[in-house]
């Protein structure tokens, strides 16, 4: 495959990750938004927002995310991966217009729901799109782009808001959207989707585009073999375009679905969403006197660095080992932070322990939100059969986002009841479970075909599930 083809795959994959960037903008904007709209500086005619309204601003985003995941999981097989990505630009445009003209909490709440839809689509569509256009040798590296771009969005949101005000994110979103749309609309949909829709000629043209082959040039031997493998996979898995219960009965499919639910659950049960949005809250509650805003921005910058490092780690040691390492580091960071909160709640003065706390907190935030976030979002699309990818990822994401709504809405109340120490310890236990589960049940997906992944899953099945149910 030519270098030109690899460049095309990288550029288009970055464009396809734009929902991750806007997800980062939404998550990063939560903290300064909370401070601004609850203060006397707010431009709302109704005055400062109440605590209940602020909580709703955080949780309503995930109501929109649930809707976005559900709709995108259905649309990917109806209108395609490419057009599903583009459709979700529309609610983001409307949401940012509402933010700029809002003079009441109602319009802001509506904007959070609309902005949230792209969060749901980000958890479903980009990983499917990328898995279906990228050659096997590059899937490990490119599959981690989404997490890096998400954290870039978080950092950009906090940085530009700090310098140019609360509305700067919305204003600068419009040119970014139009540039991405202008380039991405020129790209073809994925070969797998086009084959799934029995549009073989278009599928071949799509594969040529993503492998850098001119239309007049015959397919290379490697690309021709890849195209035949894709057609055979679609033929075996997609005898009809409608989904039935039979598509879920194979043992390897069941295990792939279980792996999907475990990985997607990590975003909630390892505290990734909470720690990205409420970093300042955790720093303030630590009992240590420090510059909260500076620490928050610094951790956001480290998240970008962590994502870039995680790309190389996954590339050189593989996905399975990377997941085990990230889960283990997450366990250490979260448990250490939980112990610190326990000592603080016990009345100890921890101002002399500032560096130990910052180290544990940084590990607890950076590792899950970079390494785990990257892989937990990308791996499911590599191990699920083409026919049910959208349905399973959409369903799993909706379930996790429903949990996220309650997590964001009631975390502060729960914190007052059982304390940060208990919650962080619970997050650490999930990471320990994740490391053990990964070691025994998650296959290596680096530089392997889908057939190899299915074979690996079959070897990990308990005996009674070896055969189709």
Automatic annotation (TrEMBL):
Family annotation (Pfam families): Sugar_tr (PF00083)
- Quick check: keyword Aminoacyl-tRNA synthetase in the entry? no
Q: How does it sit in the membrane?
A: Multi-pass membrane protein
Gene3D superfamilies per UniProt: MFS general substrate transporter like domains
Localization per Swiss-Prot or TrEMBL:
Membrane
Presence of the UniProt keyword Metal-binding in the record: no
Task: State the Gene Ontology terms under molecular function.
Answer: transmembrane transporter activity
**Transmembrane spans:** 7-30, 54-76, 83-102, 108-130, 142-160, 166-187, 253-272, 292-313, 325-343, 355-379, 391-411, 423-442
Give the UniProt keywords, A-Z: Membrane, Transmembrane, Transmembrane helix
Q: Which intervals hold domain Major facilitator superfamily (MFS) profile?
A: 12-446
Q: Where is it mostly found? A: membrane
Gene Ontology cellular component list: membrane
This chain's protein is named Putative permease of the major facilitator superfamily protein
Q: Which organism is it from?
A: Nyssomyia neivai
């Amino acid at each position: 495959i030519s270098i030109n083809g690899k460049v095309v795959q990288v550029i288009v994959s970055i464009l396809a990750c734009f929902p991750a960037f806007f997800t980062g903008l939404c998550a990063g904007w939560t903290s300064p938004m909370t401070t601004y709209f609850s203060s006397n500086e707010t431009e709302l005619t109704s005055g400062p927002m109440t605590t209940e309204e602020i909580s709703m601003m955080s949780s309503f985003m995930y109501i929109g995310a649930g809707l976005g995941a559900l709709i995108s999981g259905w649309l990917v097989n109806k209108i395609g991966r490419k057009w599903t990505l583009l459709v979700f630009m529309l609610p983001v445009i409307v949401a940012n217009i509402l933010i700029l003209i809002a003079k009441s909490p109602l319009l802001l709440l509506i904007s959070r729901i609309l902005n949230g839809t792209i969060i749901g689509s980000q958890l479903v569509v980009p990983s499917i799109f990328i898995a279906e256009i990228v050659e096997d040798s590059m899937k490990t590296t490119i599959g981690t782009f989404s997490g890096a771009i998400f954290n870039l969005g978080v950092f950009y949101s906090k940085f530009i808001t700090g310098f140019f005000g609360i509305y700067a994110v919305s204003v600068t979103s419009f040119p970014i959207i139009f540039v991405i749309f202008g380039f991405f609309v020129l790209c073809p949909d994925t070969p797998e989707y086009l084959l799934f829709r029995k549009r073989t000629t278009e599928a071949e043209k799509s594969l040529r585009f993503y492998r850098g082959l001119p239309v007049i040039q015959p397919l290379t031997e490697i690309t021709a073999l890849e195209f035949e493998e894709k057609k055979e996979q679609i033929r075996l898995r997609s005898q009809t375009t409608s989904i039935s219960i039979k598509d879920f009965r194979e043992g390897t499919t069941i295990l792939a679905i279980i792996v999907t639910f475990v990985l997607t659950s990590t975003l909630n049960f390892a505290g990734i969403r909470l720690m990205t949005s409420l970093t300042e809250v955790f720093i303030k509650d630590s009992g240590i006197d420090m510059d909260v805003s500076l620490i928050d921005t610094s951790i956001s910058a480290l998240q970008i660095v962590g994502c870039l490092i995680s790309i190389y780690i996954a590339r050189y040691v593989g996905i399975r080992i990377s997941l085990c390492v990230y889960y283990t580091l997450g366990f250490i960071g979260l448990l250490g932070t939980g112990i610190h909160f326990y000592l603080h709640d016990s009345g100890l003065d921890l101002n002399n322990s500032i560096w130990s706390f910052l180290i544990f907190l940084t590990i607890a935030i950076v590792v899950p939100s970079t390494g785990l976030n990257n892989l937990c979002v990308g791996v499911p699309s590599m191990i699920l059969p083409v026919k049910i990818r959208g349905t399973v990822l959409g369903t799993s994401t909706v379930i996790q986002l429903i949990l996220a709504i309650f997590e964001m809405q009631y975390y502060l109340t729960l914190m007052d009841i059982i304390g940060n120490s208990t919650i962080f310890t619970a997050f650490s236990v999930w990471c320990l479970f994740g490391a053990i589960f990964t070691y025994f049940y998650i296959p290596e997906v680096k530089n392997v075909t889908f057939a190899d992944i299915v074979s690996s899953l079959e070897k990990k099945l308990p005996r009674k599930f070896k055969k189709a149910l």
